[in-house]
Design a protein that fits this description.
161 residues; alpha+beta; Thiol Ester Dehydrase, Chain A; six-stranded antiparallel sheet; 6 strands
Length: 161
């Protein structure tokens, strides 16, 4: 995604757009993609209606000392997919933050694994708390890791960030 801009979303967009509108703006190139995706070589494929899908290909840059992909790579992809699934359902002026993240690693990931796909799905969208689950799979659909998140929902303030 070299042609995509990276950065933070302008404050006025955060306050005026719904979660779905934010993700549509990122997809259309009108809003920047998060820099975390550039750092970890993954990007959103689809976000909408309580579902989010990210794809990435881990490289030598993501290895732990044992030569497998660091668990933080899978955890970050799943956290992104699950939180974005929740965020896609929020109205304007609402934000969220992860308050609990549980990841279960099923298979090791290596640079030879190839592309991986994280899918997050909303389980419960409440007024203050929302939950989602997620799956990380390889190109053949083999489960690599799965997770569950709980996010706190809150009003975004109109003042400075």
């Amino acid at each position: 995604m070299d042609d995509q801009r990276y950065g933070t979303i302008p404050r006025d967009a955060l306050l005026s757009l719904s979660g779905q509108e934010l993700f549509d703006g990122i997809s259309d190139g009108d809003l920047p993609m998060p820099t975390m995706g550039r750092s970890l070589a993954f990007h959103p494929v689809h976000i909408g209606n309580g579902t989010a899908v990210f794809e990435g290909t881990p490289t030598q840059d993501h290895l732990n000392p044992l030569g497998t992909v660091h668990g933080g790579y899978a955890a970050t992809m799943l956290d992104s997919a699950m939180a974005c699934a929740i965020h896609s359902t929020l109205p304007p002026r609402r934000g969220l933050t992860t308050i609990d993240l549980t990841i279960n690693f099923v298979r090791p990931i290596t640079p030879g694994t190839g592309a991986v796909r994280a899918t997050g799905t909303l389980i419960h969208g409440g007024g203050r708390i929302a939950t989602a689950d997620g799956r990380l799979e390889d190109e053949d659909g083999k489960l690599l890791a799965h997770g569950l998140t709980t996010c706190m929902l809150f009003p975004l303030e109109s003042g400075p960030a």
